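Lay summary. Proteins are chains of building blocks that fold into shapes, and those shapes determine what they do. In this project we predict the shape from the chain. Here is one chain we studied, written as its sequence of building blocks.
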Amino acid sequence: MISAAILTLSDKGSKGEREDLGGPLIREMIGRINAEVLYYDVIPDEKEMIKAKLVEYSKSVDLVLTTGGTGLSPRDVTPEATLEILDKEIPGIAETMRLEGMKKTNRAMLSRAVAGIRGKTLIINLPGSPKAVKEGLEAIMDIIPHAIEKVKGSTGDCAVQEALKR
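And here is the predicted shape, written in a compact code that computers can read:
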């Protein structure tokens, strides 16, 4: 079982002025990889609040998925907050989400989402739009359990496993 936290970043959502559709969608989707959501919050696009939640979650869960705040608006600060608390960045995860998104819309290139590790927790930023959340998460979902195993210290040889499947 993968323990998870979902953090939705939305000024309007945090005030109850907009329904969060991305967070519940993430919860539903990660159930397919045997993930249990232990924490779910909707907070405003405030960098220090985002950092504090990411640090808090990373003390007790394997996976943190954020939704929102990855665009070009002046209030979109999720990537900056995330980068400030990461120990290691994993660029390939965000690159894959953008690449897959580009197959559907060229606006995917505007996402500034990042992914990485803090301690033994995998943290991934997803866009705010439910459609983009679905497409981005589908593109990376199958690597999440393996990535978490590695983050937690698994010493199994990845290359050998893949070679045996061929």
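What the prediction tells us: The chain has one domain: 2-165.
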